[in-house]
Design goal:
327 residues, two-stranded parallel sheet, 13 strands, alpha/beta, globular, seven-stranded parallel β-sheet, binds nicotinamide-adenine-dinucleotide, 11 helices
Length: 327
């Protein structure tokens, strides 16, 4: 872990959620003084248990709440802006709520930073969903984003609000576009937060894993420990400021293969069965998509290290120790 964080004042938004809590805990372990800002939005993955006992300061607030957030970020050395509405299905059902949480709140946060701490270094976690259906594979950052759903649009807006900080010449934000992330502390109990947590939950509960369609579409799953390393590297790499960087998994795998590997890593080894695409999922499906991490390697010196077979084994082991998280 980078020694650059020893004594650093770090704010992690969304720090009670899946990725944010893993970032916050890693920073604390690296000697940082960590404050978490999270609104505990209903239906999201936020859970105070994610950071329980770690001695972090927790502020329950929306990232755009100036009264609560300005004093927290005013003396920060780093802001890790990880908060976000993740569900593409929820965004399709209520795009205005998605816009409020991902874009409007983000604009307010960037304005708060401009006012009280303009030079702070930030990292914003975006998503591969901004690319929409891939023009070519693997997806590189030079492809024009063509989001096909409200969530992709609101996340892209969030990127641009952050990137404006670099245009001002004062602040620095790096934008990382994450692939499908999985690992400890992910919320497994909802069906609309991604295919990987659904597979994990079903495997843990010994229920059949349902693969929609022919299951040949590919993803490049990314273990959260790899994500944390990439995010921390982006914060301490000056060359990352003002650019977007793909953070992809180590290998593309078909959805069918992902289901098979998840089942094989579980104690119960439930069957993998085909199923029809639900109409709502089909509308926002992007087909095969996996990202090139070449820029991340060049700029951050980062590469994904955890292959899915190993990562899912570790993930299911963690959840087996926390049965309340999947029952
Ligand atoms: N999980 C993935 O596979 C994935 C993939 C690509 C990108 N991302 C991005 O990573 C980020 C974190 O995702 P996650 O999987 O940890 O989700 P999560 O739901 O587990 O955590 C998100 C947290 O953000 C909080 N939050 C949301 N909007 C907020 C706001 N306006 N103010 C304060 N708190 C707010 C929620 O309460 C929740 O605790 C998101 O921005 C998401 O777009 C996630």
């Amino acid at each position: 872990m980078s020694p650059s964080f020893t004594g650093a004042r770090c704010v992690v938004t969304g720090g009670l959620g899946f990725i944010g809590s893993n970032v916050a805990l890693a920073l604390a372990e690296a000697g940082a003084r960590v404050t978490v800002v999270d609104a505990l939005v209903p239906g999201h993955g936020g859970d105070e248990a994610n950071v329980a006992g770690a001695g972090l300061r927790v502020v329950v607030a929306d990232v755009g709440d100036a009264e609560r957030v300005a004093p927290v970020v005013a003396d920060a050395d780093f802001v890790f802006d990880v908060a976000g509405q993740v569900s593409h299905l929820a965004a399709a059902q209520d795009p205005e709520r998605d816009l409020a949480l991902n874009a409007a709140a983000r604009l307010r946060l960037v304005e708060i930073l401009r006012r009280v701490n303009p030079t702070v270094t930030a990292v914003y976690t975006s998503t591969r969903q901004v690319y929409g259906r891939a023009e070519r594979l693997p997806v590189t950052e030079d492809l024009t984003p063509r989001p096909i759903d409200a969530n992709g649009i609101s996340k892209l807006a969030g990127e641009h609000f952050h990137l404006l900080r670099n245009e001002d010449g004062a602040g620095r934000t790096a934008v990382v576009r994450l692939s499908n992330v999985y690992g400890p502390r992910q919320h497994l109990l909802r069906d609309d937060l991604g295919v990987l947590p659904v597979f994990a939950r079903r495997a843990l509960r010994a229920e059949p894993l349902v693969v929609f369609g022919d299951g040949r579409d590919e993803r490049d799953p990314l273990h959260v420990d790899d994500v944390v390393e990439a995010i921390l590297a982006a914060a301490v790499t000056p060359e990352a400021a003002g650019i977007v960087i793909n953070i992809g998994g180590p290998e593309p795998l078909s959805l069918r293969r992902l289901a098979e590997l998840t089942s094989a890593a579980s104690a119960a080894r439930p069957p993998v069965v085909p199923g029809d695409w639900p109409a709502a999922n089909a509308l926002i499906d992007v087909g095969s998509v996996h990202m090139s991490s070449a820029r991340a390697s060049e700029v951050l010196g980062w590469e994904p290290r955890i292959r899915f077979e190993e990562g899912i084994r570790r993930t299911l082991e963690w959840f087996a120790q926390h049965p309340e998280r999947y029952r």
